[in-house]
Design brief:
This protein has about 400 residues and is an all-alpha fold. Helix content is about 50%, strand content about 0%. It has 18 helices and two strands. A two-stranded antiparallel ribbon has the order 1-2.
Length: about 400
């Protein structure tokens, strides 16, 4: 017997019939709600009853019913879930649900903002999943606003926003993981284009100002090493740094590139280490992967250098550090070794194991220095903007 069958008792049928008849006659339903203590019913029972009531209300265009339900209920169940929010997310006929939303006439962002007032973080995540299914928050700016409101170290999202006391760490992570991601701008030169341009830059003879190799302790002796170093840094840099590096070589101001925030991508898929030969077209979206859509190989998504299993499947996350054999509970907690030609491989529990692995792998002195410097840069990127 299903939960719904259990919920449909003679009492539920009796109350439902009386409520539907009252709605049909355009009478107040408050006396019925009060006399049967509907407020304390469980969620499934309440959904059955109120779903039938709202369906009839739509049929006879009795919009007063929604106000009466909202005024009577503090919650549909024992949890502090606002009735208006429940009405918007209930499993109603789409036409009925649309009518209810129009009657309530409340901006979508306001329903999502209600989640911030729920006492339970776990409940807020459950409601967010339900809400996302029935009333998606499509505007990227709204997602950013909600996340900003939940960041205790950030400024308020707007001049009229009140600070929200946030114990909602799970909800904040859920919002970050589910927010829409914008494709990486195609206008910024690819790694391949940057490599060609900087090679030409050095090949044009005397009189050129030497580009500064950013944030590095690696010694360089030859032009080829400088070029390799610059290209490797460009492949492993975040968007704003790439803009500055490209502007220097292409003789443009950094602000001439499109304004783009790569933080959501970084928080979901980790640092980028683009393949130096990457030439994916922005318009070729059907063939593109997470890595090619979002600026290059990402630490949590790159599978280029992993050995397939016997069945041909590839999965880099093994749940164990390949260096010290320590168990790793979640993919988001793992780190990987960057490749000098771009991409990632392996599965490590922390950066110290990556450093030890590099030291024992037999790289020449220059490549080892370059790899260790890359690891240091990626470590700092994750310290500043962690994966969630």
């Amino acid at each position: 017997m299903s939960a719904i069958d259990t919920a449909i008792t003679p009492l539920v049928i009796e109350v439902c019939d009386k409520l539907v008849q009252a709605v049909k006659n355009k009478s107040s339903i408050l006396p019925i709600l009060r006399s049967y203590s509907v407020k304390i019913w469980d969620e499934i029972t309440a959904q059955i009853v109120l779903g039938n009531v709202l369906t009839m209300a739509h049929a006879v265009q009795n919009s007063e019913v929604i106000s009466e339900i909202s005024n009577y209920y503090q919650a549909v169940r024992a949890d502090p879930l606002p009735v208006k929010l429940w009405i918007q997310t209930a499993n109603l006929d789409p036409e009925v649900a649309l009518w209810c939303r129009n009657v309530i006439a409340m901006p979508v962002i306001d329903y999502w903002r209600m989640l911030l007032n729920l006492d339970s973080d776990e409940l807020a995540v459950c409601v967010a999943e339900h809400l996302h299914t029935h009333l998606p928050l499509a505007e990227t700016a709204d997602w950013h606003k909600l996340i900003a409101m939940m960041d205790p170290q950030a400024e308020l999202a707007g001049p009229n926003e009140n600070p929200v006391p946030h114990q909602h760490q799970y909800l904040r992570c859920w919002l970050i993981r589910n927010q829409p991601l914008e494709d990486y701008p195609g206008e910024l030169p690819s790694v391949t284009e940057y490599a060609a341009a900087i090679s030409q830059f050095f090949g044009e003879g005397e009189g050129k100002t030497m580009p500064v190799v950013p944030d590095t302790q690696v010694s360089v002796q030859t032009t080829d090493q400088v070029i390799h170093r610059m290209v490797t840094m460009y492949a492993g840099s975040r968007y704003l740094t790439r803009c500055n590096m490209a502007a220097m070589v292409f003789q443009k101001h950094a602000k001439e590139w499109p304004n783009y925030n790569d933080t959501p991508i970084h928080q979901r898929y980790g640092p980028v280490n683009a393949l130096i030969t990457e030439q994916a077209s922005i318009s070729d979206k059907h063939e593109r992967t997470i890595c090619t859509r979002y600026g290059g190989c990402r630490m949590l998504s790159c599978q280029e250098f992993e050995v397939p299993d016997d069945d041909g499947s590839v999965e880099w996350f093994t749940g164990e550090c390949i260096h010290c054999k320590q168990a790793i509970d979640h993919k988001e907690s793992a780190v990987r070794i960057p490749q000098l030609s771009g991409g990632w491989r392996g599965c490590f529990c922390e950066w110290y194991c990556v450093y030890d692995y590099i030291a024992s792998a037999g790289y020449n002195e220059h490549d080892q220095e370059l790899l260790e410097d890359l690891v240091g840069r990626f470590s700092l990127q994750l310290d500043y903007t962690p994966i969630v």
